Amino acid sequence: MLSTMLLAAPGLMDLAPFAKLGAGIGAGLAAIGGGIGISGIGRGAMEAIARQPEAIGEIRSNMILAAALVEGVAFFAIVVCLLVLFM
Amino acid sequence: MSLKVRRFLIFAALISTVVFTAFINGNSKNNSSPTPKSEATASEGTPNEKFDPGKMIMEHVLDAHEWHITQFGNYPVVLPLPIILFDQGKLVCFMSNKFENVHKSYLGYKIEEAAGANKGKIVKVLSDGETTDKAATLPFDLSITKTVFAMFLSLIIMCLVFISVARAYRKHPNQPPKGMQALLEPVILFVRDDIAKPSIGEERYARFMPFLLMIFFFILTNNIMGVIPLFPGGANVTGNIAVTLTLAVFTFVITTFSTDKNYWKHLVDMPGVPIWLKLPVPLMPFVEIFGVFIKPVVLMIRLFANITGGHIIILGFVCLIFIFGEKNAWLTTVVGPFSFLFMIFVYLLELLVAFLQAYVFTLLSALYFGMAKVGSHH
Lengths: 87, 378
Description:
The complex is a heterodimer of chains A (about 90) and B (about 375). Chain A has 3 helices and no strands. By secondary structure, chain A is mostly helical. Chain A has one domain: F1F0 ATP synthase subunit C (F1FO ATP Synthase), CATH 1.20.20.10. Chain B contains 9 helices and 7 strands, in the order ααβββββββααααααα. Chain B has a 3-stranded antiparallel beta sheet, with no helix packed on it. Chain B has a two-stranded antiparallel sheet with strand order 1-2. The radius of gyration of chain B is 27 Å and the shape is globular.
């Protein structure tokens, strides 16, 4: 029923609110993805520090680097959602 | 105070926040809540307009032809910046305060306010002085906008700092560093020993050091100045995608010019990959060639989105106080402290992000330079 309504929609009604809905959901999914990714990195880093506390400096820098890269991926999704919202 | 009293006070603060939020939502059934896209056409100075958070945030994050510093009551304090246009061989310069009345044109140009592809840009007008000349091409806009002016300011600061440090090294060559030297020496050595040497290798790293130091300190200085709310700071330089695009283009060009023949051979015929990924349908070569362009684009988007996102969050918390204040003036005493504390937390996060993004951009550039020279030892 939803699919037939959406198929008939472009001729009958303005689809902009659906685009905004999609952008909002996309941003939320990006947040979830980023959260899961960085939590995995954090878990690995904590376990590594627990095993070998004297390597804490190197583990910390590598963890921050990996977190920045994963966060970059989440930001691509945010940029796409902003493009949908404002264009 | 004792643990029980502390716990009670925290609990009471939380409950009061929840209660007052429900209170304003219940009381606002007659008014519509201010949407970010409300049609607030009144200019900044009039006192009776509704507060438009979307407009306020966009004004602080986007570029502009003047620098709005503050507002004394109804009188805005604005620094007008020069507009420089190159129109079919003719150079036209004037200050942007000639454009204060948005409907009038000046010298045959005006800022387009009708919605469409040219909104906000400078367009030519017909001889009546008002309507846009739709047939003419847009003049080439070389104006000193807020972003460019802020870049000049941060470059002046960087030059002052680094030239004085270099002079100090030359005058007292083998003595312990003092002052600004002592502040910058660990950072410069960090860029050399932890970013350049491991990624590029001992023999080649020295040629790339000036570029790596330049982007590290450029991004760091502009990130930090973007977060300072008072005059010389507060412009969103690294959050402007044109600026990050330029830095990424530099990285791409330097990577391409420091490659050897094996780099290009390995793009299409990488060793250690089974033949079925390369030959009938070249999957891996497609991914690798795509990656050559995608890697600098990723650098650009990462820096842009991190910095702009941070600014939008900080401004959002500030706007929260004003939104609540519109409903009920004494609500600001409740919402104010929480919003303020959150804003300080996000500010500190922004400071971390400033360093982190400079580090990540520099590190990835160094990695790309290092990977460019493949060598024949495979």
